[in-house]
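Feature request, filed as a ticket because there's no other form

It would be nice if the structure record came with a short human-readable summary line next to the tokens. Right now we just get the raw output. Example of a typical job, pasted below so the devs can see what we mean:
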Amino acid sequence: MASAVVLLSVANLREKDIAAMRHVQEMLAGGEIVELTPSFPALTCPVQANMTTGTLPRDHGVVANGFYWREQQQVEMWTAGNDCILQPQIWDVLREHTKARSAIWFPLHSKYAQADYICTPAPIHNPDGSESLWCYTKPTELYGQLRDQFGHFPLQHYWGPLAGIRSTQWIVDSAVWAARQFRPEFFYIYIPHLDYVAQRTGPDTPQTQQAVQELDVQLGRLAQGFHEAYGKDIFWIIAGEYAITPVRHVVYPNRLLREAGLLRVVPTDNGELLDLRTSQAWTLVDHQVGHVFVRDGDPGTIRRVGELFRAQEGIAEVLTHQDLARYGMDHPRSGDVVLVSTPDSWQAYYWWLDDQQAPQFARTVDIHRKPGYDPVELWFDPASRGIPLNATLVKGSHGAPAVRSEQRSVLLVSRPGLLPDRTIRDVDVFNLVLSQFGLQ
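Raw output as currently delivered:
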């Protein structure tokens, strides 16, 4: 058995990138590489839950990067704890059946998980609206130790206009430190660096190639540090999660619902706010996926929404009822209607028809108050000194079903004879890890 099993979840890693990654090739020398097919929706939180539970959203309940809690009429983006995942994860199974200890570093929904060691961003939101840098860690005092060693986690370089390699450097430094201190037998690390530039410029540009080179250097540092901590007998698994495709078009589902008289807003001194209480339908958008929530699940409104979007450019599928079961998305948390973009389009959350009426938070990096994912937060507008309100800036996206090769990522392991000949699914990562501990 290996001294450690290390699973690296590297968003948007593709086979063509590996050819330019010398350090990764050295890490995986003698191993195998196959195509990784993400399940729908090919989004960060669902794919990570697929990999760590071996089940689909119909079972684990993670249907997007955020949730709409219908009874409370509340949207929760990015802050849900581990209990939102309704199936046992790898570390739960290891804890129950083995003596192996687990560390999970930066995957989503990891707060309060039952792993032995955890580190994930958790900035403190102050009463005046400001944020203080912090991470949730287990044990609690661990973040103080990491901060003393490496400084605060650079959250401004993890997301937003300054997103870049510095956050990955901190993740690598802190993970190596934890490996040396604790030597957990299973270590799961999320590294999103290749996401940023691909959304800004498209997936195949000089900027994305530079990001690949930057990441390769950091993964080389990670490998060296882990080998010093564990020795050479590490079983490496690198999973590319999903692949980003070029986009040339954007759909605004909430604007279309508003123009159809189904979505309502509340005028305030801070701009127009979405009225979840009185709207007949509204959309939680997430890259190339939109969950349309219909008040009281009214069948007539569901039909109207379906008719509205089936005629829209950029929408490939409109899913309802049995259609959701076909994708393993038939869970009560899913929208009453789910909108699927074409590979060259994506969906923006905007509901205002005049930028002068946009809510104040629209021009800020505010991932919690926006009822949907906003990749435009990767830009900064010097004129307004804030985030621009121009969704056409986005050049790459993901989330739609992976039906084309360019929508699939890659999976690599450091030993031969373990992978199928051509492709593997994200849900298969669960058993791939557990088999290294003698479990199925």
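Something like this underneath would help us a lot:
Residues 176 and 391 are 38 Å apart (CA to CA).
The radius of gyration is 21 Å.
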